[in-house]
Design brief:
alpha/beta, Isopropylmalate Dehydrogenase, two-stranded antiparallel ribbon, 12 helices, binds nicotinamide-adenine-dinucleotide, binds 3-isopropylmalic acid, binds manganese (II) ion
Amino acid sequence: MKIAVLPGDGIGTEIVAEAVRVLDALDLKFEMESALVGGAAYDAHGHPLPEATLKLAKEADAVLFGAVGDWKYDTLDRPLRPEQAILGLRKNLGLFANFRPAICYEQLVNASSLKPELVAGLDILIIRELTGDIYFGQPRGRRTAVDGHFPGAEEAFDTMRYSRPEIERIARVAFEAARKRNKKVTSVDKANVLETFQFWKDVVTEVHKEYPDVELEHMYVDNAAMQLVKKPKAFDVIVTGNMFGDILSDEASMLTGSIGMLPSASLNSSNQGLYEPSHGSAPDIAGKGVANPLATILSAAMMLRFSLNQEEAATRIENAVKKVLAQGLRTPDIWSEGTTKVGTREMGDAVLKAMG
Ligand code: NAD
Ligand code: IPM
Ligand code: MN
């Protein structure tokens, strides 16, 4: 089993280091090989996703990814910006299905910005389509407007699009996942305005005929954003497009206490996967040793479960995380009165210790 380790930028290096220590402690036979990605790769090789890094990722059984990006790269030409590395990996590896489970651990009920009773026991799964939508649609660019409100003015444009097979396969992933859970799928769209999402809704409805045992509900994205903070436990599986899924998953992270708690798995059709926290490189806290490593450690657990067939090891890590939270240890993002503030490394140490 080979794992490609791509820490990236900012807190990426700090949090991935802790996940690697946890994986090392398992005493399983895998080989881990690291490579530069994102801004770090741009600085060293002039490209955010060097050929060698892409090759390593393609050949690995799984990829453990930290985060990429920093404000200092925001003025580079788009193809050279760090974010292109993660987008390129998703596209090149065909990682169309992004699982972002939002689970509020019992011990973190007070860390959420919502009232405890709204989030206690929360366990929802956001399934975000990851290789289509306005993220990848062509054409895009800048030009001089020939029509619209200001003909002759400079304008920018992107293309939102989804094909039938793209929607069918992500819908199947969602229905299959719901079958193993509470058998309810909420498909989030903007069918009242966008042709792309009327088509999304129509195709999801057709695929649903294959899953009569699963309940399907449709919800507009604006309402979904509101319902997520009104009554989050009414959801089970949410399936949506690339952009809406990006936004709703960050919103859902606060239901769990912090974005530093939200892991993710991005899978292709052969169950090869990339595992990363749902958050970014957090330049505001990078280098301070205070980032929460748990989303990354929990992503490593998802990697063991989904790509490496090591269910037992995955559960061992998840139980260790729960134990550490029960001990009252908290990085600043999840800290609340009466708990003990620790840094990234100390949190990693505690997880290792809890694993026994
Ligand atoms: P961000 O997720 O990096 O940070 C948002 C806020 O959450 C910040 O206040 C940050 O300190 C906090 N935060 C994030 N992760 C945390 C953790 N583990 N522990 C404690 N606090 C944490 O989003 P942003 O600030 O909008 O973006 C920063 C950079 O990251 C940008 O360049 C962006 O493009 C990039 N980004 C990359 C990825 C990725 O690599 N997959 C994901 C999101 C954003
Ligand atoms: C995420 C990030 C990425 C996205 C960016 C960095 C390209 O926000 O993984 O959620 O928008 O998908
Ligand atoms: Mn995001």
